Amino acid sequence: GKGLAVFTSGGDSQGMNAAVRAVVRMGIYLGCKVFFIKEGYQGMVDGGQHIVEATWSSVSSIIHKGGTVIGSARCMEFRERAGRLKAAKNLVARGITNMVVIGGDGSLTGANLFRTEWSSLLEELVRTGQITKDQQTKYAHLHIAGMVGSIDNDFCGTDMTIGTDSALHRIIEAIDAIVSTAYSHQRTFIMEVMGRHCGYLAIIAGLSSEADFIFIPEDPADPTWPQKICQKLSQERSTGQRLNIIIVAEGAIDRDGEPITAEKVRQVVVENLQQDTRITVLGHVQRGGNPSAFDRVLGCRMGAEAVMALMEATPETESCVVSLDGNQAVRLPLMECVLKTKAVTKAMGDKDWENAVQLRGKS
Ligand code: F6P
């Protein structure tokens, strides 16, 4: 059977295990020899016991687990050609020419570069006597399919990244818990949520928890934000509300590109309204714990589709990323999506927020 490897890379997210499980089982079902690559690209570079054959039962009882049971890492070595050369040798040694990568845009970019270089890497391995000419011919083509695992939902091309829904569940539970204590003491709470340069978690969490104010990177606060927030909070209190909730995305900024931090917001509220105010930074709690039903099923569907894409690929087929479009699993050109995602980050860096939102909207 064809050699197929699956690995997770970059920050973990809930639902990655469901995706790994689906890749393994669909691969075995279609007659492939399936391998786990443990610890992401680092495991691919290191080889040895990091690349192990997967069996049907080795992915039993992982669908409900958060994180990724095969480990993930941010790998510096793979960014250098020398690291990628070692990785290629390790894959050829096991007959692996199909890879499913589950990660964010950085991990998918790395995979695509690897594929572009593949024939020159094999050439060098033959030249230096590390693989045979026969191996070079037999394993001449590398096929890659990507899936986006991230709680941030910051990837152009998919409606939901694997992990976002679970992170939202975690955030909502936390806000509900905070509300009961805030109510008791008539307090204002400022909650910082993750998302890097993306405000998706903050917006959806805010909408579903009746937050009074939300700060996100894509809509930088104008210079009048202190007046606006104070007006809003005092108006809520004057109608009898006993608490206020403010959500700050970790990447929130103002129009000068300066960070809007939970502490800045606290000072404004305390100085102007003298409200009893506390900050809660949710941190990695958002990325942990069991995946939601949605993320489990999403991981399963994406994983199965990724394997089917690889099995249908020809040497000319572009690498794809498996995405969710409405309720459909679709295959999109990997590099096109990565480049769009990078263009969003660039537009935000250039303070061209309208363009950033438009580009993301076109995803
Ligand atoms: O990309 C996922 C994410 O959790 C972001 O929301 C956050 O900014 C970042 O990763 C945190 O990275 P680390 O786990 O390395 O601290």
From TrEMBL:
The active site is at D152. Substrate binds at S150, I151, D152, R187, M194, G195, R196, E250, R278, H284, V285, Q286, R287. It is found in: Cytoplasm. ATP binds at G11, R74, C75, G104, D105, G106, S107. Residues 4-309 form the Phosphofructokinase domain. GO terms for cellular component: 6-phosphofructokinase complex. Residues 1-363 are annotated as: N-terminal catalytic PFK domain 1. One of its GO terms (biological process) is fructose 6-phosphate metabolic process. Keywords: Allosteric enzyme, ATP-binding, Cytoplasm, Glycolysis, Kinase, Magnesium, Metal-binding, Nucleotide-binding, Transferase. Mg(2+) binds at D105. Homotetramer. Catalyzes the phosphorylation of D-fructose 6-phosphate to fructose 1,6-bisphosphate by ATP, the first committing step of glycolysis. Belongs to the phosphofructokinase type A (PFKA) family. ATP-dependent PFK group I subfamily. Eukaryotic two domain clade "E" sub-subfamily. Belongs to the phosphofructokinase type A (PFKA) family. ATP-dependent PFK group I subfamily. Eukaryotic two domain clade 'E' sub-subfamily. This is ATP-dependent 6-phosphofructokinase. It comes from Zootermopsis nevadensis (Dampwood termite). The chain holds residues 27 to 389 of 799 of the full protein.
